[in-house]
Amino acid sequence: MSLKAVLLKNLLRQSRLSSYTPIVINYHRDYRYNNTGKEKKHNRNAIYALLGSVIVGSAANIKQKESKNREKVEAGAKKQGLPTYTAEEVSKHDNKKSFWVTYKYGVYDVTSFLPSHPGGEQIYNAAGLSIEPFWNVYGMHKTEEVYKLLESYRIGNLHDDDVVDHSDDELWAREPHRDPRLLVMTAKPFNAEIPPHLQVQNFDTPNELFYVRQHMPVPELDAKEHRLRVVLVGDTTIVKEFSLEELQQFPAARLSAALMCAGNRRSEMNKVKPVKGLSWTTGAISNAQWGGVYLRDVLAHCGLDFAAVEGKHVIFTGSDIDATGVNFSTSIPLYMALDPNAQILLATSMNGAPLPPDHGYPLRVVVPGAPAVRSVKWLQSITISNEESGSHWHQKDYRSFNPTKTWETADFPSAPPVYSLPVTAAACEPADGATVAPVDGHIQVKGYAYSGGGAKILRVDVSSDRGRTWREAQLQCDAAPPRTHYAWTLWTISMPVDGACQMEIWVKATDSNFNTQPENFDDIWNIRGILSNAYHRIKVNIKR
Which of 42, 93, 141, 374 is catalytic? Predict the structure, then answer.
């Protein structure tokens, strides 16, 4: 059963009192449902939303297994001594003055939470509904912190007759095989990083070890049937459609590029003050050789006016859908897409093989030098528009705030989207806390460095005396022309060992724009924990 069908079935499960007819009304699978019953009951245009929305979980021990979380916090369990409400009663509390949701047996009044909801107005879609089906898609919400938050708004129990089994087994039944060496952050959806010692073994990360970042279940697509739709919105809208075979008629292009999640190293920023998001360490970055065709060539073929660029955007839409039937989408400025140095690729291969399902099979866009969220997987449409993407992922995430902004004070519409990445570096081997035996009075330290926007890594500096003195590492990088250094740089250094039993190693990089990493996280802290690029620090025990 397709993901779409499972989501529709979940809708029918949720309503025991009304009759629903699902109707697909546009290309982007923006599903709407007509309620033919006399009573509203458990029905909304956007079926499911969630407490926490698509803000992906919490950095507080997100690696814990869901079963352990449930053992510690009985989220949604029936509680004695609380009033019982029917689904019909819950559904009447559907406005800003009184806003209720359900989770399993639990009924929750989250009215006071609305202003601080990280997902903004997305939560309004959940009025009077169960949030459980949506949390089955965004499984990273099933953490102890989120359960505790939810239970703090508990007001009652849902009537036994209205409790629906929202099993999520079918949603995830056809997930692709994953390498057991990956360090899993969340299982549903699957998010995992590459172990640090494996990061530095190869310049190009093997496909099976490339870090994985998913927002929803992986869609099942057929390369022979897949089509890319290109829409140029204007006085006369142009629409063209391409099969993968037709895309291959454009000049072939190859690109060596790293993709890095904007939240890479978030776990370090979280130590300053809690942030929202997956608790990535240093493993949310990998490098690959991408093959495909240039986006510029396809847009030119479609008749795009390269002289009329100002104020326009390129919206990329994937085939993955959330629990409301909305496709994943984000955008970049058109001027960025048309810059020859940007080398934006419509990719069909990765390290010489077809794209794996986890990495966008059969087609993804690769926007090098930008946060990996812009490199939309399972690409189904490209739209040239006068507006940015209106999706939640673009409007309510991956934006920049200063350290004093909170979820209550952050103004997402006025905050600039992140389209490039700052310089960063990390030590990967030995691992933090490892015990190492010196050889001839030295230990070998290895790691990576990277900077967005095509900047080259000029230097990686390493200190073992808390920054009093620095040594330069040896670099391994690609031979790309200036302003097109999209691959990462691997580095290695032999550090002398003094008589201490422990060494604290600091690492920082400088790029070709002479940008250098900041020393600490305090001044770059932000509510989403993105762009976490202060000095990387590890402690190593010296074996005597």
Answer: 141
| Closest by CA position to 336, among listed 371, 363, 361 | 371
CA distances from 49 to 55, 136, 256 (A): 12, 11, 38
Mean local confidence (pLDDT), 151-163: 91
Dist. CA 114–CA 118, nearest whole Å? 9
Helices of type H across 44-187? 66-72, 87-91, 132-137, 144-151
58-75 per-position pLDDT tens digit: 333 334 444 444 446 668
Phi, psi (deg, nearest 5) at residue 394: -90, -40
302 assigned to active site: no
Catalytic residue among 28, 29, 44, 213: 213
What structural domains does the chain harbor?
3-162 (3.10.120.10), 183-414 (3.90.420.10), 424-542 (2.60.40.650)
Reported as a single tens digit per residue, the pLDDT across 285-313 is 999 999 999 999 999 999 999 999 999 99
Percentage with pLDDT > 70 across the chain? 84
Sheet containing strand 457-463, strands side by side: 435-436, 536-542, 502-511, 457-463, 471-472
To the query of whether residue 428 is one of the catalytic residues in this protein, the response is: no
pLDDT for 43 beyond 50: no
Given the residues 20, 211, 226, 261, the one annotated as active site: 261
For residue 228, give the H/E element and its range: strand 227-232
Tell me if residue 536 is catalytic: no
Per-residue pLDDT at 53 exceeds 60: no
10 Å CB burial of residue 124 (0-12, 13-18, 19+) is middle
Q: What is the pLDDT of residues 488-541, one digit of tens each?
A: 999 999 999 988 899 999 999 999 999 999 999 999 999 999 999 999 999 999
Confidence of residue 57 (pLDDT cuts 50, 70, 90): very low
Give yes or no: 159 in active site: no
Residue 61 in 3-state DSSP?
coil
**Structure-block tokens of residue 450:** 């990277």
476 membership: H or E segment, kind and range: strand 474-476
Instruction: Note the pTM of the prediction, 2 decimals.
Output: 0.80
Q: Is 117 a catalytic residue?
A: yes
Given 42, 117, 265, 374, the catalytic residue: 117
CA dist 297 and 301 (Å) reads 6
Question: How far is it, in rounded angstroms, from Cα 543 to Cα 432?
Answer: 15
229: which 2 tokens? Answer: 């739709």
